[in-house]
Amino acid sequence: MSQARTLRIGTRASQLALWQANRVADLLRAQPGAPAVELVHIRTEGDARTDVPLWQVGGRAFFTREIDRAQLAGEVDLAVHSLKDLTTVLETGLALGAVLEREDPRDALLTRSGQSLTALPPGARVGTSSLRRRAFLTHARRDLQLAELRGNVPTRIERLAEGRYEAIVLAAAGLKRLGLERHVSAYLPIDQFPPAVSQGAIAVVRRADDAEASHWLGPLDHRATRLATVAERALLRRVEGGCQVPLGALASVQADRINLSAAVCALDGSVRIAVDGETALTGAGDATAAELGERLGTELLARGATRIIELERAPRGAELP
Question: How far is the C-alpha of 7 from the C-alpha of 274, rounded, in Å?
Answer without folding.
Answer: 43
